[in-house]
Amino acid sequence: MNIKSRLKDSCLALVGRVTRRCIVMLPQEARSEYEIFDLRAPYPTEDRLQIDLREINPGLITASLMGYSGHFPVVKLWESSPYEYAGPCDFVFNLADGSVHIAGHSWGQAPVPQSRRFCWSFTLHSNGIKRHRITSHYLKVRNRTNDSLYFQGDNYVDHELQSKGEPERIAQLMRQHHAIGPVLEVGCATGAVLDRLDKEGVPSYGVDISEWAVEKARERLGPGRAWLCDASSEEYPEALLRHAPFGTLVLWAVLEHFQNPFIVLSSLTRLMAPSATLLINTTNADSLSHMIFGSDWEGYFDWTHLGVGQVSVATIKQELPRIGWRISQLETEQAWDRSADPTRATLREWWASDARFRRMLSERDLGDIVTCVAVRP
Q1: In terms of domains, do 198 and 238 share one?
Q2: Which of 214, 258, 337, 352 is the most exposed place for a label (fewest CB within 10 A)?
Q3: What's the pLDDT tens digit per position in 236-278?
Q4: Which residues, 6+ apart, have CB-to-CB distance to 297 below 8 Å?
């Protein structure tokens, strides 16, 4: 932490003690809605992005195309010339050739973004007031393979880094619920969870649909631990089945990827021993974020989320007992959104700064991510 950050935290703590309030630093956009440029913009897009500019005040407008460095849109790829904005109109960006239009007029040629995520930044100077807005977009894709690009840039910025704390969390849940081996992890990716369970002395095995990820897992763990397998096909490797029945089934950030999530879970249940433990971490289609953002929900960003609309607190509570599992723990967390749009950032900033908001979402099962532990009676 640098000196500036320490000074800021110290000042906030001092003001908090004096006022007996929880002091939070909000971004500049939170100061006044009149300084936020009024528009409507889709989050996902394909070949043609259209943004509905709704600001009624005329003035001089500029636009910048922004690219990402890691998780942040800080790379300016292109900047427009000033344009005399007369009022509500359409802004169109053609991702096939980079052409930019405003109110039906050509506004130049921008480079086509090379990554799935990009932003547009609009600034309007009108009657001495500066109105600003950044919009956030991602390119919808279909039928790509889950190769290295999926794990390192196309879907995750860095899968290993972003999921760094999850293996320890799984190990803790297993200890807490007295889960035993052998463990079957479906969607083992590059083997981080299996590697962590090795330190616990728990025998564990995994499957994944990504050939690249399974190869990385084998490099990390050695042979006989991870196999290439589409669990929805019910064609499990013979070498894996030799370790059945399994004492624990881990489906961590994977259930939402199946087109028929609970049919797959039913099939996997047949590989489990009596009194086995099930650990699930998945998306919640009943979340507050999904209710607010609809088709712009973050859950749709990953094109391999084939069943993301079917998995929720309600369906988990309904389907697990039918399949043969008794739920012993279920909770939701997070306001999951990666959009740079300041109006969308509100939910994640509330989640980060207000314990009351976190508790409200948790108690009403409105968080974006579900963690569920169940046992097989």
Answers
A1: yes
A2: 352
A3: 999 999 999 999 999 999 999 999 999 999 999 999 999 999 9
A4: 287, 289, 290
